[in-house]
Amino acid sequence: MNKRIAALILALAVLALVVLTGCNTQKKDEEKTKLTVLALKGPTGIGLSKLWDDSENKLTKNDYEVTLASDTSDVSAAAIAGTYDIIAMPVNLASVVFNKGADYSFLAVNTLGVLYVVENGNSINSLQDLKGKTVYTTGQGATPEYIINYVLKANNIDPETDLTLEFVADTSEISSKLASGTIDVAIIPEPFVTSTKFASQTGTYRVALNLTEEWDKVSTTSLVQGVIVVSNKLLKNNKEAVKKFLEDYSASVKYINENVEDASKIVAKYGIVPSEKVAQNAIPNCNIVCVYGDVGVSYMKGMLGVLFEANPKSVGGKMPSEDFYANVK
Question: Which of 194, 173, 191, 195 is nearest to 182 (CA)?
């Protein structure tokens, strides 16, 4: 009888421990901060994909509600309205919306250079080979145009007289024309570089030049194309949650860069890149990073300086004040 009582007491004790553990786990989950995040399709949003997936599986330090945008105008409007806690966006747009009064600060660099010179043929082996060519590209009046012009001018190539830059509004239009062989030379970003390769009917499509490599040859400033900004309200009221986001995001970027095959499944699942096949081939060329703190600020200031010199309007008419830099370490 005594043995039965002892066994019953032990069982009740184990049950109580399980209940208490469950309560503690639930309490820990409830203590997580819920953050709203706006990601952008393409390279600027790729780094958030693993974080997104981990959050749905309750594996992140914060809870994240992620929304995917397909157009920068949606991102700009969201920043002006102050709709989200965290937003991934093009580098110059972060400065533009700040100068328009958006209550956000720069937090981290998340995408370096993603532009490539591609062609149908084998005639371009250096930037000098672009002379006399008609080169199709996008981003007139935006970061891509200024990046291209900067690299060309640094190589003593006049973008107005030595070649013809034909700006097209939609990169998918250029991709389609490259794939069909309607045009020969273009400067386009990943993942369009890869998707064009798979769609190409010419048999001669190839990547001729990596514009990031060409940039690095002539500039001491890192080529930045995508960044993350944070709501100043969140920064003021819950800086710890911002620090946890940087930890979660850093882990996400590390996973994506080190596990490309598995990461491509996640990227495709959320529609950030059109397909798993494209994602798997494009990710290594997308330069996904998480650079914050003093180094991140240095990268951002350097890039904005280049853009401002090219055209002050590209960064919103003026360089942003020091209040623009969150510099969370």
Answer: 173
Q: Which CATH architecture has domain 115-218?
A: 3-Layer(aba) Sandwich (3.40)
CATH topology of domain 32-112+223-324: D-Maltodextrin-Binding Protein; domain 2 (3.40.190)
Among 256, 310, 300, smallest CA distance to 95 is for 300
| Cα distance between residue 284 and residue 256, in whole Å | 9
Ordered strands of the 134-137 beta sheet: 164-167, 134-137, 185-189, 115-120, 205-210
Residue ranges covered by each domain of the chain: 32-112+223-324, 115-218
How crowded is the C-beta side of 15, counted as CA atoms within 13 Å? 6
From first to last of its 329 residues, what are the pLDDT tens digits of the chain?
Answer: 555 555 555 555 545 454 455 545 444 445 899 999 999 999 999 999 999 999 999 999 999 999 999 899 999 999 999 999 999 999 999 999 999 999 999 999 999 999 999 999 999 999 999 999 999 999 898 899 999 999 999 999 999 999 999 999 999 999 999 999 999 999 999 999 999 999 999 999 999 999 999 999 999 999 999 999 999 999 999 999 999 999 999 999 999 999 999 999 999 999 999 999 999 999 999 999 999 999 999 999 999 999 999 999 999 999 999 999 997 87
Amino acid at 311: N
pTM: 0.88
Give, as one character, the DSSP assignment of residue 319: P
Q: How many CB atoms neighbour CB 191 within 10 A? A: 27
Handedness of CA 123, 126, 127, 128 (dihedral sign): negative
Place of tokens 């599986």: 57
